[in-house]
Amino acid sequence: MGQMDDLSRITVHPDVMVGKPTIRGLRITVEQILNALADDVKVDQILEDYPELEKEDIRAALLYASKLVDEERIFSVAAN
Question: Are the beta carbons of 64 and 7 closer than 8 angstroms?
């Protein structure tokens, strides 16, 4: 499965989770997945806690975050 296929798992609907990016329209946000991983929750545990998720959904959340960071630009302001 390619990266574009992975990203198609991320959906945004104004009526679902206040428009936050979710996994396949489920009420599970990319943010929830990223926070769990940041808290050192193992992928197997996330999949057990959310049986409707698939391993590819976790990969899609990480890829989505990576794409956002890749697009981020920080401009420094020169001190006077």
Answer: yes
Q: For the segment 30-60, what is each residue's pLDDT rounded down to a tens digit?
A: 999 999 999 999 999 999 999 999 999 999 9
DSSP symbols for the chain: --HHHHHTTEE--TTSGGG--EETTSS-BHHHHHHHHHTT--HHHHHHHSTT--HHHHHHHHHHHHHHHHH----PPPP-
pTM higher than 0.85, yes or no? Answer: no
All domains of the chain in start order, with CATH:
3-70 (1.10.10.10)
